[in-house]
Amino acid sequence: MMNQATFVYTEDFKKYKFRDDHPFNQKRVELTFDLLKSMNALNDDQILAPRKATDEEIKLVHDKAYVDAVKRASVNELPEEEGLEFGIGTEDTPIFDHMHDAAAQLVGGTLTAVDSVLNGDFKHALNFGGGLHHGFRRKASGFCIYNDAAIAIKYIRQQYNYKVLYVDTDAHHGDGVQWIFYDDPNVCTLSIHETGRYLFPGTGNVNERGHNEGYGTSFNIPIDAFTENESFIEVYKETLETIAAYFKPDIIVTQNGADAHVFDPLSHLCCTMEIYEEIPRLAHKIANDYCNGKWVALGGGGYDIWRVVPRAWAQIWAIASQGGAPFSGELPKNWVNKWHEESPVTLPTTWHDRSDIYKPIPRKEEITEKNKILVNKLLQPIRNEQKYMM
Amino acid sequence: MLVEEIMSESVITLNPTNSIEEALELLNKHKIRHIPVVSENNQVIGILSDRDIRDAAPSILEETHNQQILLHEISSIMTTPVITVHPLDFIEDIATIFYEHEIACVPVTKNNQLIGMVTEKDLLYRLIQLTGIHEQSSQIEVKVPNKVGILPHVTKVISDRNTNISSVFIYPYQDSYHEKIIVLRIQTMNPMPLIDELKQHGYEVIWPNIPGLSK
Fold first, then answer.
1. What digits encode the pLDDT tens for the residues B29-40?
2. Which of B136, B190, B215 sits opposite A23 (nearest CB)?
3. Given the DSSP bridges, would you call strands A218-223 and B165-172 parallel, antiparallel or unpaired?
4. pLDDT in tens, A55-106
5. Which of A87, A125, A178, A370 is the most exposed place for a label (fewest CB within 10 A)?
6. Which residue, among A234, A296, A224, has the nearest Cα to A260 in the 3D structure?
7. CA dihedral B122, B127, B131, B136 (to 10 degrees)
8. What top-level branch of life does the organism fall under (chain B) (predicted)?
9. Residues of A at the B interface (Cβ-Cβ below 8 Å)?
């Protein structure tokens, strides 16, 4: 019998660690796992231990020369100059011992999730160790070494002839995945992110629509800095519903970066926990409506690892495993008590955020209007086509 | 940067005796807006824009199109004389020409021979490249006093953090002579430690700013 959902987890995810003070910290996966465990929301038969990705699998996306460079960096045998050519040894992706193994473990986690959905063991599979969407064919960047999301999509395309819809709600543009599938009409990418006017990586404009055969299957909404819940959710729902109806995917892969929250130190968006209930709720519905439930959910960014990420990702599990209802009310006290000493910030005690965690944004109406204009611009070709068909 | 670095060398041309109809076909086929008109020895003697043709073409509102017009020679409607540039001119010069003469294209000539073309679009493309946006990066804007030694100091703060700079722009702060804005695109996803350090050095980082936030 097919089970609802599986949670891919190993403590080894934490070995993907650049430096002690580096913002990318996989302890957030442990905190999420522990949060679910502490409220008995995760049974042992729902947990999958991940395999490690093989070199062949990694090379579905990445160049051999790049993989070799990462391997040499892992044992400290990569000259600095050569490393920089591959984006290795920079401030964002510094070299650390066994970085190849650690990165291959994250990819393996995502492939384990994909396998469990493809072979029908589970309808939905979650791997919060993955979602490293900035990795390029031959370049590490933005904290990402191997692009597990892109590898997973190639893997799906190789195993089955499924049409894949990739939905990226990280605050940063999902550029790695977009460029890798930019000319592939069977992979549709949708990225909703803070405008690249200031934020890394700078790309992700509405006019990046794909290339050659893939033209029309790349979608971007670069929302304004200081966008809040209401506008974010409106943009998300309208674009995802329209694009899913247009593309009709066979499977969806979501990248659930949790850095659009107002507490996140790296972005300038002003959302709260509300969006992290709505994001998986609609992804779940789209998966059920179009894909017989086939949904692979990945992690991604998320740099407030104490107050934001565990709650945000736990809600994805709530919706995936319970068929649509998010958690509400108080957080389990034993979880808060267990971690509050280690946390440098005061831990939240409820699933929802109070509305006064930030001061009102002065230009809310203009921001909302600007985002709405973007959505119309983005969806115009689809709507024109629909009009023409009628 | 020189004109020869950005000009396109494969130029579609016409002779003055070609018909307006032929010109129209070329414009549509190649999706271009200007055609230089050259003499037999490849000297530029005129230029034809899509507007020149539109002005000459019969109105689409007229019931019976006067097709005879399309058979006229283009020499009858081309613009002449033509503003041209030299391959060793600077691209800033072209920007000035476009701005002052309100045109969008110049032929490039050397020894009185046509060797290339530069359009508004080529220039805009370079401008976009100058902003560094084509490389993965974050942007910060720093307000600094307009005096000697500030730029190397700001960039040293960045290089000390092993972070590469994709591009630098400097422009005046409003109308002030005493202050400038330095716009930097830097190759990191996490500019926060850098921003903090620049602030500690007394610089004002004016963007990204966090208005009214208790972050």
1. 999 999 999 999
2. B190
3. unpaired
4. 999 999 999 999 999 999 999 999 999 999 999 999 999 999 999 999 999 9
5. A370
6. A224
7. -10
8. Bacteria
9. 23, 90-92, 134, 141-143, 172, 175, 196-203, 225-226, 262-263, 265-266, 268, 270, 357-362
Q: Quote the CA–CA distance of A171 and A220 in Å, as a whole number.
A: 12
Give the residue from A145, A204, A213 showing the smallest Cα distance to A178: A204
| Most distant CA atoms of chain A, gap in Å | 62
pLDDT tens digit string along B97-140? 999 999 999 999 999 999 999 999 999 998 888 887 778 899 99
Low-confidence ranges of chain A (pLDDT < 70): 1-2, 390
**pLDDT band at B210, cuts 50/70/90?**
low
pTM flag (> 0.90): no
What is the residue-averaged pLDDT of chain A? Answer: 96
pLDDT of residue B215: 39
The total number of residues shown for chain A amounts to: 390
Q: Where does the pLDDT of residue B1 fall: very low under 50, low under 70, confident under 90, or very high at 90 and above? A: confident
What distance in Å separates the CA atoms of residue A110 and residue A128, rounded to the nearest whole number? 8
Nearest to B212 among A134, A265, A362 (CB): A362
Look at strands A122-127 and A295-298 and give their pairing. Answer: parallel
Judge whether A178 and A211 are in contact, CB under 8 Å.
Answer: no
Amino acid found at A184: D
Strands B138-145 and B105-110: unpaired
Q: Where are the domains of chain A?
A: 3-11+19-51+101-389
Q: Is the pLDDT of residue B59 over 80?
A: no
Residue of A nearest to B209 (CA): A268
Mutation pick from B137, B163, B183, B189 vs chain A, by most beta carbons of A within 10 Å, is B189
Report angle CA B14, B16, B18 to the nearest 5 degrees: 65
Q: State the pLDDT confidence band at B206, using cuts at 50, 70 and 90.
A: confident
Tell me, what's the pLDDT at A88?
A: 96
pLDDT at B56: 83
Distances (CA, A) of A314 to A28, A104, A321, A346: 11, 24, 10, 19
Return the residue matching tokens 């929301």. Answer: A41
Strands B113-119 and B105-110: antiparallel
The verdict on domain A3-11+19-51+101-389 having CATH code 3.40.800.20 is: yes
- Which residue stretches of chain A are H helix? 27-38, 55-58, 64-74, 80-85, 99-118, 148-159, 175-180, 229-247, 273-290, 309-322, 333-339, 364-389
Contact at CB, B137 and A202, closer than 8 angstroms: yes
Interface test mutation site (partner A, options B136, B141, B169, max chain A beta carbons within 10 A): B136
**What pLDDT is attached to residue B39?**
95
